[in-house]
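TA notes, week 10

Several of you asked for a full example with nothing omitted. So below is the full record: structure tokens for the whole chain, then the designed sequence directly under it. When grading your own attempts, check the secondary structure regions first.
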């Protein structure tokens, strides 16, 4: 996983503000204002202090201000700092227990029918609310599911962005080829990712089965995806299928 490249040291208060902006933007896809942070997180400072801290975070490259908006949104660096320094250990809630129970039952049948592995992409799409991808190293096969999940997100509301993403899907095998070189779980944000779509986030890993089969699983979503949940999904799936 890439580490954040900022040399800036943030105070605990500024870390809390950055974390709050990331969490709220993930939920609502709307710029986050200082007033909203003050009400939502009960910060024991004045609105002017929060505004000053948000301006500092913007100057240091962690936040940006969309045109004509009073609020801020995270930059790629802001997401990266949140994931590497603020998010904590990814975990799954109880709602995901059924998901992995279904996966365990399903995988018992996979040894008899290889094609059933494609449904791992279906499970990932369903559990993450994004797009699930499964690709097989030796068979030159890639399956994906969850396109409707992505196209329902505001990042894909423009025709131009839909065309860009359609081109990515047409070249999916080529786009993810480089990811087969690394067995660690990778998180690529915006311009970090080889898929070359700046509004996307990508979480992926390689899985080596005892049978010798090697395949790749990933979640593709908007850059403001729920990283905590989705990283945990990928890690748990890797543990289950290895």
């Amino acid at each position: 996983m890439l580490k954040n490249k900022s040399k800036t040291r943030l105070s605990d208060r500024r870390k809390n503000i950055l974390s709050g902006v990331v969490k709220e933007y993930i939920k609502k896809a709307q710029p986050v204002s200082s007033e909203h942070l003050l009400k939502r997180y009960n910060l024991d400072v004045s609105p002017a202090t929060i505004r000053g801290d948000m301006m500092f975070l913007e100057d240091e490259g962690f936040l940006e201000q969309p045109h004509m908006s009073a609020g801020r949104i995270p930059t790629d660096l802001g997401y990266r700092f949140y994931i590497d320094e603020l998010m904590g250990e990814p975990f799954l809630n109880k709602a995901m227990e059924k998901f992995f129970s279904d996966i365990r039952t399903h995988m018992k049948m996979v040894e008899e029918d290889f094609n059933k592995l494609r449904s791992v992409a279906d499970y990932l799409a369903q559990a993450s609310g994004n797009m699930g991808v499964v690709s097989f190293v030796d068979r030159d096969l890639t399956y994906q599911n969850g396109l409707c999940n992505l196209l329902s997100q505001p990042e894909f509301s423009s025709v131009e962005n839909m065309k860009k993403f359609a081109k990515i899907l047409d070249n999916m095998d080529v786009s993810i080829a480089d990811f087969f070189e690394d067995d660690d779980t990778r998180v690529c944000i915006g311009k970090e990712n080889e898929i070359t779509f700046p509004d996307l986030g990508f979480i992926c890993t390689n899985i080596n089965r005892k049978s010798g089969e090697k395949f790749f699983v990933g979640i593709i979503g908007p850059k403001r995806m729920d990283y905590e949940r989705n990283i945990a999904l990928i890690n748990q799936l890797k543990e289950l299928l290895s």
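DSSP finds ten helices and seven strands in the chain. Use that as a sanity check on your answer.
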